[in-house]
Give the backbone structure.
Amino acid sequence: MPEPQPRRYRALQSRYNGRMTAPFRRKRIRLVSENYLGKKSYFVTMCVDRRRRDFEDTRAARWIIERLRRIVAQHAFTVDAYCVMPDHVHVLARGTRDGSDLLELVSDFKRRAAETWLARFGTRLWQGRYYDHILRPRENAIAVCWYIWLNPVRKGICADPREYPFCGSFTGLWPPKETPALRWDPPWKQRRSGGFDL
């Protein structure tokens, strides 16, 4: 007769209907590192630990924008669009050299910001993971910029993204003159809605 499994394991097993191959294995969410090199554009979302609203504070939001501005230049990147929301940050980063490495950029940015934050406030700043999407040639980068800039409008913070002080661009795309007709949704929203073909 097999030994009874610990209660926690049994709960997990029933939750997954016996489909688990290893009880505590996390799904790999990154592509191989070579995909994150070069002159590509990347949509990145980084969330505050426990989705705390730390960037509601004006000084904290401005600080994270300036930290981003300094670090992207050191890693041969530029930022076509960013938006600092109360509990997360959206960025459209673009490599400017063949050796531009998104994984190094995000790791360095999160690590340095987190160290300063921990020393100042005694709490973690970021969730452990982040979301990234490498833009395909058929995806319109300006539409992605607008997805980022419209985030505070979608959340009901303002009526026009130009009213929100924590949206912008490091490449001169901000403030935009008019909203484009093209729409873009990140892949996780496309899958949830049954597919949004660009």
In short: The chain has one domain: 37-188. Residues 1-28, 193-198 have pLDDT under 50 and may be disordered. Helices lie at 7-15, 58-74, 102-121, 141-149, 151-154, 187-192. The radius of gyration is 19 Å.
